[in-house]
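hey so i finally got around to running the thing on that chain from the lab meeting. sorry it took forever, my laptop kept dying and i had to restart like 3 times. anyway pasting the input first so we r on the same page abt which one it is
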Amino acid sequence: MKKLFVFLISFCLLLTISGCDNDKNVEEDIPDDIIEDIPEEPTPYPLFIGDVVIEYSPQRVVSLSPSLSEIIHELGYGSRLIGRSSYCDFPPVISQITDAGSGANPDIDRIILLSPSVVFTTTPISTMDMFRMEQVGIRTLLIPASASIEDLRDVYRAVGLVFEGLFTGIEAGDNAFSAISRACDNTGVVNIGNFVYITGDFRAATGDTLESSVLSCFGTNLARNGINYEFDFELLDENQPDIILISDKYTLEDLLESEYFYWLEAVLEERIIFINNTIFERPSARLVTLIEEMLADFRSL
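ok and heres what got predicted. didnt touch it at all, straight out
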């Protein structure tokens, strides 16, 4: 995601330089017909996001990612969504939009019939499918899933750039993201202590995950040194968590039946908070509600 914005900054500078009048004497020597072809000022389009050219603000788009669909709605462009992922269920109105498959299994024939100008996805689409869409003028924009709060902010910015262009796109993304930023700006007000977060597939959220990035604003993740959700729960014997955060897919009984958790003090004393893991899987402004509910549960322990 960082490369995306480095490229955009370079592109903006190029446009700015091309529109500058650094030497009036040089301009006087340029023939009139050439001067007329020099743009007076840069324009919001076209722009590059990754290696995709966005030539204008798209009026018809398909989103194969529930998270991106929600973010598009948050930025005020939900009316431009004409196709959605099979997994999209929020906001509820999205159910009225045509199902176009998923990033892993897109319905390319249906997408072509819908005739969007841009298809958003967080999952790579096969080269052959991308080629088929490219042949009829459909751009495929891959925006990778977020592994940190900063990554999620950049997702908002990328969506803002697509719909609003160079001059206001990043600001639009930042404005939509601001509620999440404020919710995560804890600055030591609440400290839940040492924690471990158990995901929906009973793995630990390690330091390279969005879950850890968000929850670490409020405490210390004991699994922070793990990689890609791989963490040895037996290490909790050396440093017991003050609190257990776990997907609401599970129950206290599940923890008591687990060889790794049944003996932990946090489990025996029921210092446990259950979290809607789906929101981490499809991050959007609903993270604010997740954080508020988690902190309310913490205060009631």
